[in-house]
Amino acid sequence: MPDPSADPELILRLEGVSKTFQNQRVLDALDLEIARGEFLTLLGPSGCGKSTTLNIVAGLLSPDGGRMTLRGRAADRLPPRKRRLGMVFQSWALFPHMTVFDNIAYGLKMQGSPSAAVVKTKVDEMLELVRLPGAEGKFPSQLSGGMQQRVALARALVTGPDLLLLDEPLSNLDAALRKEMQVEIKRIHETLKVSTLLVTHSQEEALVMSDRIAVMRGGKIERIAPPAEIYADPRSSFVCTFVGDANVMLGRVEALDAGVARIVLPTGLSLSATARPEWTIGGEAAFAIRPESFAVRPGPVEAEHVWSATVTDRIFKGGTVTYELAAEGAPHLTALALPRAGGRLFERGESVALAFGRQDVIPLADGEMAGAAVRPLTETV
């Protein structure tokens, strides 16, 4: 029976879920909730526990401890077929000997759908939804990778699941198709409003498709928030460097005034930042500046903060150019600029000004990733 105290707007709740493999703690008392109609992404590096979490939700693994509920009902011992889940695997797992129609209809037939007419109606609806009308008679080998992915999505959705599980579904596609399918999956989600749990290591996929992102590390969730919030306020240096690129630095708090800190780097460079509650005068302060927040200029400019720097490397990407720079006390900085039509690119060894404001400085709770967030470029132009 459902828990009468359960929130009816919650599809999934994990409470204190843990898992150990060969004496290694993979999930450490994990708490997670997914609301009705929400698209939530588990984002993190290999080994962080995201796939283990998804497999526990799917019923493919049993947790060692904790509690899981689906739609307010205890689901820890519920077999996978009774969980009302749809799943798209990394390999898509289409049946090669079946047509597109039969692949999509497979779940309906396993459920004992009442009639062939009902099956055909639902399959046709799915083909329209994933924009593959007329493809029902083809076999997977006759489809492109993107089309196969759409068939896998249709098969997972045709049974009307309460929760859709996506296990790195775009990893086998090329870059252009990945971008296309990100938009398609988001469109389909917004059309059906089906609760969705995506597992990925791609920050782009997470930012594009999610309502909320849960960044995982070492079996725990380090930060969970909407994409824009997690990008602007990552809180930890790990989240800051995993969700987007960042220049993470350490300094000392020289002064505090009305919630604003004056931070000085070891060699004298200084800046202002919104102070974190735990910062104290004379104490260490970690902060980050996103590469796109630096304005790279050829000479002196008027700005709240201006640092002198030298270009050490660059890479031209068409619509953007990335500069590696060295400033006094900050020898490894990265800046992202938009090439101007008819404008020239800065050369290696050239002196430039880096302009930014207090609003561009992201205060962090730790400096663990200081200096590790930026790496010398291997390509030059």
Mean pLDDT: 91
Tell me the series of helices and strands, N- to C-terminal. EEEHEEEHHHEHEHEEHHEEEEEEEEEE
- How many helical stretches? 8
Q: Please give the largest β-sheet.
A: 6 strands, mixed
Low-pLDDT residue spans: 373-381
Count every beta strand, where a strand is a DSSP E run of 2 or more residues.
20
Quaternary structure state of the chains depicted? single chain
Name the helicity range. Answer: 10-25%
Global morphology: globular
Query: Strand portion, in percent?
Result: 25-35%
Family: Belongs to the ABC transporter superfamily.
Protein name: ABC transporter ATP-binding protein
GO molecular function, one term: ATP binding
GO cellular component, one term: ATP-binding cassette (ABC) transporter complex
Q: What does this protein structure show overall?
A:
There is one protein chain. The chain has a six-stranded mixed β-sheet, with helices on both faces. A five-stranded antiparallel β-sheet has the order 13-12-11-14-20. It has helices spanning 50-58, 100-110, 116-129, 145-157, 175-192, 203-209, 227-232, 237-242, and strands at residues 10-21, 24-35, 39-43, 65-70, 73-74, 85-88, 163-167, 195-200, 212-217, 220-225, 247-257, 260-264, 270-274, 284-289, 295-297, 305-316, 321-327, 330-337, 351-356, 361-364. The longest helix is centred in the middle third of the chain and has 18 residues, at 175-192. The termini are far apart. A hairpin with a 2-residue loop joins strand 4 and strand 5. 22% of the residues lie in helices and 34% in strands. The protein is of the alpha+beta class and 381 residues long. Helix 2 (100-110) crosses helix 3, helix 2 (100-110) runs parallel beside helix 4 (145-157) and helix 4 (145-157) runs parallel beside helix 5. Pfam families: ABC_tran, TOBE_2. Belongs to the ABC transporter superfamily. One of its GO terms (biological process) is quaternary ammonium group transport. Residues 12-243 form the ABC transporter domain.
